[in-house]
């Protein structure tokens, strides 16, 4: 609580300071204070604060010249985890340009949507993602979008090289007046989150939100002497805001990985003397599933910061790898309410205290899961859930805890606003999450509501998956949902589908569609063929019963299919396959 008060004082100072003091300014000051300190280790290379500062200035100058960027222009970054991601973002910040962080797994329609909804005029990518960009290049060219690749050469007409221009650019600091109009309420970046529309939504992240999120490391006790292992995607709020931005705020050293690797994790930690790491629930499970070694507790990791770890995995992780302080978080990129478990209470996502309640007023209200709406009393107000009762978490919208919403999507922004909660005329942010607060004020995450489920640490929009399935030759309608699998965090994708008249389920074609148009985590692993799909009075597909019934062929009369990654096809789901899944002989 004392740390939180000090951080609150800092952000209040930044709000009042003229000109506005941004995280970029903090980075520049840090580079001046400790120029030779390593900011990032990456695949055998290392870059100091001074080097990253210089490269970001060179990138900014090259973009200023080649793309004619000016303050306020949005630039889409379609890049994997690599140091260039970091200095490209910082370079854009030096020009006062917001960055849209595109998920490098998305393709085709999804990529175009994400690009267009942030209003970007420029796209920056890398050689390994060129194929994905080429698919949508005709549309981008038509719209007058400038596309740059971080390379010295490129044979694709319409895509310009950037690395060669960066190398020739000056590394002199850029004048501050290039970003003179940036304030704490200005948009710093866009981070994409899945929603009920079937396509990702661009959450608007202001400079105020950047400061608040990057303070999480400080709040849990991380210092400048720590070494932070960053293995989550930089396009995610966890990897970018908590990991990268938080590391800059602390002035520490980052160890960046392209992708998480369970087999390399502890060797990396020992090699680089890592003291702090990040996780999502699946990360810790993968580590627990590796073969035990005598060196399992031989490391210097003190903190693990993340979200979504199950109680059993939490306990197993501590027993096997030693006394690591697990700092489980709850929050959303666009949300105005979050929690940190600072107590080591296994299973909790946080604990409510008076200070937290004052700064982030919130309540848990009764929620009808079947109707997917809050329960209201005769006066039309929401009813607060009792202690120990699962309910919908809502955060009051105030100047101190605002909800900015989504770029170019008023409909989805409005859906997240809940009015007349405690009293007539009030306004709350609807988290869409069911939580429980116990008698000791510990907070527990219970489930998600609506049309999104989480698998492999990613949010999956059910209607986006449904659209892809219905494009398959034999499928008429698709109702997509997530089902629980014993021993796995989150919910895995399943679809109940109806077939076109006279058609049988075309396994090969359906497989081809989902593999071509969906990232691995969003592909429905189970398909259930139904004669008709059950809908509500407002024609909304019913999911609750389907979710409860799961995918056990012994309990379901409908034909079931399983996406077999080895056979590269959908195959009939037999009891033998089901048992192999449940015994984990088949990995999901």
Largest sheet: 8 strands, mixed
Average pLDDT value?
93
For the secondary structure, the number of strands is 30
Helix content: 25-40%
CATH architecture of the domain at 50-208: 3-Layer(aba) Sandwich
| CATH topology title of the domain at 50-208 | Rossmann fold
Structural class comes to alpha/beta
Give the distance, in angstroms, between the N- and C-terminal Cα atoms: 41 Å
Protein name: long-chain-fatty-acid--CoA ligase
Domain AMP-binding enzyme C-terminal: 465-540
InterPro entries: AMP-bd_C, AMP-bd_C_sf, AMP-binding_CS, AMP-dep_synth/lig_dom, ANL_N_sf
Membrane topology: Multi-pass membrane protein
What does this structure look like?
With about 600 residues, the protein is of the alpha/beta class. Among the domains are: about 50-210, 3-Layer(aba) Sandwich (Rossmann fold), CATH 3.40.50.980; about 345-400 and about 410-450, Luciferase, Domain 3 (Luciferase, domain 3, Roll); about 450-580, ANL, C-terminal domain (GMP Synthetase, Chain A, domain 3), CATH 3.30.300.30. It has 19 helices and 30 strands. The strands form 6 sheets. An 8-stranded mixed sheet has the order 2-1-11-10-12-13-14-15. Strands 7-6-5-3-4-8-9 form a 7-stranded mixed sheet, with helices on both faces. Strands 16, 17, 20, 21, 22 and 23 form a 6-stranded antiparallel sheet that branches. β5 (about 120-125), α6 (about 130-140) and β6 (about 145-150) form a beta-alpha-beta unit. α5 packs across α6, α8 (about 205-215) crosses α10 (about 235-250) and α12 packs across α13. The radius of gyration is 24 Å and the shape is globular.
């Amino acid at each position: 609580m004392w740390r939180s008060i000090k951080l609150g004082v800092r952000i209040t100072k930044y709000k009042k300071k003229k000109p506005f003091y941004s995280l970029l300014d903090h980075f520049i000051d840090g580079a001046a204070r400790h120029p030779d300190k390593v900011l990032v280790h990456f695949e055998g290379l290392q870059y100091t604060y001074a080097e990253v500062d210089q490269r970001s200035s060179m990138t900014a100058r090259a973009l200023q010249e080649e793309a004619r960027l000016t303050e306020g222009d949005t630039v889409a970054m379609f890049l994997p985890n690599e140091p260039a991601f970091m200095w490209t973002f910082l370079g854009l910040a030096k020009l006062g340009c917001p960055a849209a962080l595109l998920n490098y797994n998305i393709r085709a329609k999804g990529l175009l949507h994400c690009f267009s909804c942030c209003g970007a005029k420029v796209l920056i990518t890398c050689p390994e993602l060129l194929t994905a960009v080429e698919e949508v290049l005709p549309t981008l060219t038509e719209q007058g979008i400038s596309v740059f690749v971080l390379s010295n050469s490129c044979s694709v007409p319409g895509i310009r090289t950037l690395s060669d221009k960066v190398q020739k650019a000056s590394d002199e600091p850029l004048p501050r007046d290039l970003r003179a109009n940036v304030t704490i309420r200005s948009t710093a970046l866009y981070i994409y989150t899945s929603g009920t529309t079937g396509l990702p939504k661009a959450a608007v992240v202001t400079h105020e939100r950047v400061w608040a999120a990057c303070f999480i490391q400080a709040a849990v006790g991380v210092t400048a002497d720590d070494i932070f292992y960053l293995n989550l995607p930089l396009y995610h709020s966890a990897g970018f805001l908590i990991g990268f931005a938080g590391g800059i705020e602390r002035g520490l050293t980052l160890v960046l990985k392209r992708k998480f690797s369970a087999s390399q994790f502890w060797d990396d930690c020992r090699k680089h003397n890592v003291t702090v790491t990040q996780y999502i629930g699946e990360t810790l499970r993968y580590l627990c599933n590796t073969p035990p070694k005598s060196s399992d507790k031989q490391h210097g990791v003190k903190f693990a910061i993340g979200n979504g770890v199950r109680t059993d995995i939490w306990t197993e992780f501590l027993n096997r790898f030693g006394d690591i302080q697990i700092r489980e978080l709850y929050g959303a990129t666009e949300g105005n309410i979050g929690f940190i478990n600072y107590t080591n209470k296994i299973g909790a996502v946080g604990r409510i205290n008076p200070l937290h309640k004052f700064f982030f007023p919130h309540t848990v209200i009764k929620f009808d899961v079947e109707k997917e709406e809050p329960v209201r009393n005769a006066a039309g107000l929401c009813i607060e859930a009792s202690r120990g009762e699962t309910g919908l978490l809502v955060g009051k919208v105030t100047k101190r805890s605002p909800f900015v919403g989504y770029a170019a999507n008023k409909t989805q922004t409005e859906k997240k606003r809940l009015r007349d909660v405690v009293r007539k005329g009030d306004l709350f942010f609807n988290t869409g999450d069911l939580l429980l607060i116990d008698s000791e004020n510990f907070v527990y995450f219970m489930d998600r509501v609506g049309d999104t489920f989480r698998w492999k640490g990613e949010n999956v929009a059910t209607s986006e998956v449904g659209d892809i399935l219905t494009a398959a030759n034999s499928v008429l309608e698709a109702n997509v949902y997530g089902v629980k699998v014993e021993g796995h965090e989150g919910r895995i994708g399943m679809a109940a589908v109806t077939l076109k008249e006279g058609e049988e389920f075309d396994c090969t074609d359906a497989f081809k569609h989902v593999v071509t148009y969906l990232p691995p985590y969003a592909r429905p692993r189970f398909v259930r063929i139904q004669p008709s799909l059950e809908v509500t009075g407002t024609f909304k597909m019913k999911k609750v019963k389907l979710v409860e019934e799961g995918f056990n062929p012994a309990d379901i009369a409908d034909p079931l299919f399983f996406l077999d990654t080895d056979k590269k096809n959908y195959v009939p789901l037999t009891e033998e396959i089901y048992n192999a899944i449940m015994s984990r002989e088949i990995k999901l």
